[in-house]
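pinned: reference chain
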Amino acid sequence: HKACTHAVSASNHSRQVSAKLKQDPVESSGPPEPKRARPSAELSTELTVGLEEETMIGTMTVNRNQEVREKEEETMFEAFTGEYRTQVFAKVKQEANNPDTVKRKLVEANLADLKVKQEVI
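pinned: its structure tokens
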């Protein structure tokens, strides 16, 4: 029957521990209630069902987490590109208000325009 107790998951174990703590308070008054021994067949069936349920829940959780992670990555990417765009616009706006930059940009634009015209010819 040792194999059965090993099959108990960590969450079940913590549940049992907390249940035990609730049952036996530190200032215990009177004798502890006698524990009813359960037949091992009933116990092992319950454990198997519990494990199957936890496995299913585990699988569902993994799939769910995958979806959530993909969504978060998309959101983060959108947020990043949005933030990046905002920074670029801010920089462009800041430079646009600087008269020296405006002149330089016009010269660059004209040069680029000339270069394009030369390439066309």
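why pinned: Residues 3-8 have pLDDT under 50 and may be disordered. The CA atoms of residues 25 and 88 lie 63 Å apart.
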